[in-house]
Design a protein that fits this description.
alpha/beta; UDP-N-acetylmuramoyl-L-alanine:D-glutamate ligase
Length: 343
């Protein structure tokens, strides 16, 4: 473990993404994904020590996810917590409408037999003691699914001075969800899924609330800001050609954390509105760049990926980065659903 690198722990959706291109001649491909998996992989790419807390077993999907995470330097110490279970598999189909643009559809059904693919299962309370030694000195604890174990670890992270970021995909059990909101320093969610989540003064911990608005950008508020705790709008970063917008929110989250939370809670508590806006803009720029490629983290697999502070223009990907390296091609046919594997 490098002492100079900030550390992030995360639990929630760590999955295998099966990506079906809009180009029928392109092979179906598979990479590590899920909100938690993507955010931690991007942070590792940006130089962080990243530790996903998951329940991966030894099935084909888990093996592929582990290999992909390791490629980016993600630490797997806590990735196979007991009781181990099948890694979730998500099918993403990219579509190019006749009127231009790009859309994508998610499915939990096998491409071959149509059967249900493995779904998400949260870590259990047995993992809390196992993860406890990693929490002191951690800069960020990230979670996107609510469970008793996730909340217990989040509470420990709060006590240790880490930034806790909660990115819900849904509400789930009401009491646990409300507890998650009360613990988090940063809450981020999409407008398509949820309405504004907090009320003024409802949480003493909440320092930043973000609502993403798709192509319209995002808005954020600093509820503890004495002069102006109200919502502030930010436009999206433009890009000429959108190949696939999947993963944009994950890039925004990772970019934000990389700028605001490397030093733990202290820097976030003292951050000005201008500092927060700059960090969000950096995340948006990373997200815009990724939209030029297929897959939630497609930009990371290009011939010359660079997490440099000197971002290349999202309007001009450049020919040298628009080619995927051959060793990253992976046939999704090697990863089957349990029904196919049993046949």
């Amino acid at each position: 473990m490098r002492e100079s690198a900030p550390r992030v722990l995360g639990t929630g959706l760590v999955a295998l993404d099966i990506v079906v291109s809009s180009d029928s001649d392109s092979p179906v491909q598979a990479w590590a994904g899920g909100t938690c998996g993507n955010v931690l992989s991007i942070l590792a790419w940006l130089g962080w020590d990243a530790y996903p807390i998951a329940r991966m077993n030894d099935d084909a999907a888990s093996s592929r996810v582990r290999a992909d995470l390791q490629r980016w330097g993600v630490h797997l110490d806590l990735a196979s917590c007991a009781p181990a279970t099948s890694t979730p598999i998500i099918v993403q189909e990219i579509r190019q409408p006749r009127n231009g643009g790009s859309t994508h559809k998610f499915s939990w059904s096998c491409l071959r037999c149509g059967g249900w693919l493995p779904s998400f299962k949260p870590v259990t309370r047995a993992v809390v003691e196992h993860a406890a030694p990693y929490i002191p000195g951690t800069s960020v604890f990230f979670f996107d699914r609510v469970s008793r174990a996730a909340l217990d670890m989040a509470a420990q992270a709060v006590s240790s001075g880490a930034v806790v970021m909660f990115e819900p995909s849904g509400r789930g059990e009401v009491k646990l969800y409300e507890e998650a909101l009360s613990l988090a320093h940063i809450v981020k969610y999409a407008d398509q899924r949820m309405a504004p989540e907090t009320q003024e003064g409802s949480s003493k911990n909440l320092l930043l609330e973000i609502q993403t608005l798709g192509g319209a950008g995002l808005r954020y508020r600093l509820p503890q800001h004495k002069r102006n705790p109200r919502w502030r709008a930010m436009k999206a970063v433009g890009i000429k050609t959108v190949v696939d917008s999947c993963g944009s929110g994950d890039w925004t989250s990772a970019g934000l954390l990389s700028k605001l939370a490397a030093g733990g809670l202290g820097p976030l508590q003292g951050a000005s509105a201008a500092t927060v806006s700059s960090a969000l803009k950096y995340g948006q720029e990373l997200a815009a760049r990724n939209c030029a490629f297929e897959g939630a983290r497609g930009a990371m697999y290009m011939a010359n990926p660079s997490p440099s502070e000197e971002l290349y223009s999202p309007d001009d990907p450049g020919p040298e980065t628009a080619v995927r390296t051959q060793d990253d091609r992976f046939s999704a046919a090697l990863v089957g659903c349990p029904k196919c594997e049993a046949a």
